[in-house]
Amino acid sequence: MYKLICNRPKIHFSLLILLLIVFNSCSALMNAPTDKEISTLGEVTPYTQKLKSLPLPNEKVVVAVYKFKDQTGQYKPSEYNANWSTAIPQGTTSILLKALEDSRWFTTIERENISDLLNERQIIKSTRQEYAAFQSPEEQKLTNQILPPLLFAGIIIEGGIVSYDSNIMTGGAGARYFGVGGSTEYRQDRISVYLRAVSTNNGKILKTVYTSKTILSQSMNGSFFRYIDLERLLEAEVGVTKNEPVHLAVKEAIEKAVYDLILEGSKENLWSVSKNHKEDFDKLIVAAEKEDSINNFRVDNRILTPKRGKYSVYGSLNGHNIKGDYTESEIKTGFKLGTKFFISKNINFDASFSNFSLENKNIFYQKFNAMDLNLEYIFLPEDTFSPFVYSGVGLITPQKTGSDYRGKVNVGAGFEFLPKSFIGIRIHGEYDFGLNDDWDNYVGGKRKDSQIVFGVGVNFYFGKNNLNKIY
């Protein structure tokens, strides 16, 4: 076996690379649960700490929660057969009560199982009456004491989980080369929660809040499949899947709803913060108002804000390949400088100057200047990575003459990545359709001369983008 592997160094190396990639990128695989684990306290979410750190109220509000349940009727999605398990945990009332308790703004009273509470109080009364004759006078005094009255609520908290949208975003990527490959996939679901406060005095709905939370599932796997010889096949597979717990997503959405309810209710004087903490509480309200002013969330919970300035200047290093009347065309380098002006969130006007050479090996060589006017369309203007297309017209002239202009039509496409909001790194490809047939100083054939252009460049954006009204 040792001899066989030594004779196949490429296979051994490929396997090693595959395992390194998978083990390096999948921390969950390196920490696979192989032993029993002890029970722990429940996990917390980012809003658990926010609720617990809220400034104390001037006075706690007594609230009741009768039912806060799943109103979606959604079952767990399944690709193969019917699944009768619910997609959302059914104990959402308990989650809400815990969130109200953690906030320290409310005194919660039992209403979900009020019948159990009333039955137990009735048992206490009946037992006292039944055994009163067997008690001493001192014990009878204690027995005859009336049970204290139940607390009643000034506000009822109602609502529920109103939607569970599965597969709102799916995607993945993969590659395989000579039997060695890997792939990754992801899926996003989303839940939505409504919470409202109702006055028990007149039934008026005092405040309603709405929150949502995405649920992410990811998988990554790698495989190796290779015939070592006619009778030996080497095959290996490894993978890991991570699913965000639905319970934690529900918990976070409910805690976010309680947090917003406290802030919104305070603004409308439904309850108030203690005077000693008013300044800190006002800061939280201001931060919440900034979030509330952003009304351009997308289904994947990303905030849609302009990523580019209204103007830009750019430069690129290009490769040019002439498609003319001669054969053996060479790729020659050149550069382009230009500026852009955005007329909408997706569309910009582009003016540029370029300098380049065109060559057919041992036949033709000429340096050119060109001026182009293009309209460009960016498909995902709010994302850091977006494809784009552009088209326009231009003039090309040999550097020797400087006045012999030839027309062309430009069509191109590419991708842009923004590591920072003011910098865009671009990769593009372009085809220039010539309107003349003498770019290579020869007129012949059925087609006009043209060129293929490809390159990489950098855009520098500046100027405030005031195109929000177009959103």
TrEMBL record:
<keyword id="KW-0449">Lipoprotein</keyword>
<dbReference type="InterPro" id="IPR005534">
    <property type="entry name" value="Curli_assmbl/transp-comp_CsgG"/>
</dbReference>
<protein>
    <submittedName>
        <fullName>Curli production assembly protein CsgG</fullName>
    </submittedName>
</protein>
<keyword id="KW-0564">Palmitate</keyword>
<feature type="signal peptide">
    <location>
        <begin position="1"/>
        <end position="28"/>
    </location>
</feature>
<keyword id="KW-0732">Signal</keyword>
<dbReference type="InterPro" id="IPR011250">
    <property type="entry name" value="OMP/PagP_B-barrel"/>
</dbReference>
<keyword id="KW-1003">Cell membrane</keyword>
<dbReference type="Pfam" id="PF03783">
    <property type="entry name" value="CsgG"/>
</dbReference>
<keyword id="KW-0472">Membrane</keyword>
